[in-house]
Each structure stands twice: as structure tokens, then as C-alpha cells.
Amino acid sequence: MKIGSFEKSGKSRVCAFEDDFAIDLNAAYVGLLAAKGTTKPRARAETELPAEALAFIDGGRGYLDSANRALDYARSIGFETAEFAQPVSDIKFVAPHQPRKIVCTGTNYEDYRKLIGIEYAPVPLIFMKSPTCVTGHEQPVVLPNGYGIFYHEWEFSCVISKACRNLKPEEVNDHIFGYTIFNDITGRSLEATNRELQPLGKNMDTFAPFGPWIVTPDEMPDDLYNLRTLRRRNGKIECDSNTSNMRLGFEEIISYCTNFFTLLPGDIVTTATPPAGAFYPGDVIEAEIEGIGVLRNPVEGVDVDLTYARDLDVKDIV
After folding, report:
1. DSSP 8-state class, residue 107
2. Which H or E element spans position 299?
3. What is the pLDDT of residue 39?
4. Which CATH code for domain 97-312?
5. What is the spatial distance between Cα 248 and Cα 268, in angstroms, rounded to a whole number?
6. Are 183 and 208 in contact (CB under 8 A)?
């Protein structure tokens, strides 16, 4: 199942994506219960299938089973006629869910490591990104004008299904809810000026677009480590890579992380980026990963105070 979210009446609603339709899962479940003659279907549906995505992920296998029943019901009456199904072209995408934390991995693709001349690391190089950076498919990435060059670093990523600590590599797959595309937007000039500025360059609002949805493991290709990945800017392919270029997979990265801290349902874990590239206000950036789809974001610029840029003597800024 492809699971994501769209905005309805100012609120985020968890949905399934199928045949170019977005199916509101909670509303479909209400319809299923009503069709069965269940009394007070709304109250029961809110208990058995929440309307918000993070609560849905928290519910684990039970909510997925309810979602599958709701989706089967939607299929039975037809997406075109169901009031709880909308064409994807008519919805406003938002981030698939609001993660509790985002664990990013650096320098894990050998094609990129060799290109930029970084030394081989014996362990995953991880860092945290703030959940307040999150935005969704088709939503703008906003760059502060005058603060140098920014890169989009598109990363094959997973969403954790249940709390975990001290996992062995062979236990990791049982703790993955699904897979998605994460775009680690990075202030390249900021981190090049001083490594201590990297958290600023990584954690501005809108600097963590992901989506367009989360694909459950049963719908992914069998070999996760042989998936084509593409980075486009304004429709032009600027990098063509493959997850086979990764040195470490989810098993090693997540096992390493959980030796030191707990991962929670909804947490995002990335596997780092293939060769990244610069982008600018006015661009449209796309990240494509085989088996998932295309994450697309327009890019805007916003005027900000340049005092800090001058004080920090950031390269390529003013």
C-alpha cells in the first residue's frame, strides 16, 4: 500500500494512493462500517482507524489490517463514485506524516564519496535533522536569498514501525513500516565555511521534503539494493545512480543507531545521497527512486536579514 496524507479542511488526513486516486482511509472505514449496519460508525472508526498519519503508524499491524479492509471496500464501489476518494490531481499534498525525529546518514554512496574525496568511514556517519523542517510533495522549498549555494541530497529512506533498541541487523526489517524518498536540503556554503554551521544549513524550515508517500514493504521490489535513483532539476536528469552504490544498508545503519538510542514509530532513517547538486529559486527539483515514485518540489527564495551572513563571513554569500 502507498500511504500518505493530504490536507482537507485545514487538517491532515491519512490516505492510500491507488490508480491516481487518494482514498481517505478513515472516511472509507466509516463507509464500510455504515454499509455493514454498524451503529455509531464514526466513533468506532476513530478508534479503529485514526484520521492522522502518525497515529496510524503508531497502531501497527492492526491499523494496516483495517486500512486494507477500508481500501477493499473503496475498490468494491469504485474510486470514481466514492465520496471519500479524490483524483490525485485535485488534492493538496502534505508530508506523509510528522516524524518524531529524523536520523540522516552521510557519505554512504561510494560514487559520491569518491567524487568529493571523503575518507572511508568504518561506521555509519549519522546526524539528526529537526522534524520542523518537514514538508511534502509539491510543496515549496524556501531558500534564504543571499546565503549562498544550496544542494538537494535525495535519499532512499525508511519509516520505523515500532519502538526499538539494540537491534541486530537481522531484526531490522521487522521494525520498518515502509519506504520513502527524503530530500536532505543542505546549505552548502554554510557548512563549507564552518562545520559548526552545518546544523543551521540542514535545519531551516522546508529543508526536509519527503514523500510523495510511504510504500509498505510488501509493495517494494524484492532487491532494495538495486534500485535506480534519479535527480532532476527543471525536468533534466542531473544524476543517475543506483542503491547498489550504497556501502551500508538499512540493516547496518539502524542496528548501529539502536545501539545508542531508541527509535520510535514514525522516525525516519535515511541512507545518504548519491552525487548531489546545486539548485536555485525558480527551479523545480525532483527525486525519483524505483519502486516509490517521484518527489517534486518547486523552489522559492525569501529575503532575510544578511547581518548574520556578514558576521559569519560565509563564503559565496554577499
Report:
1. S
2. strand 293-302
3. 55
4. 3.90.850.10
5. 16
6. yes
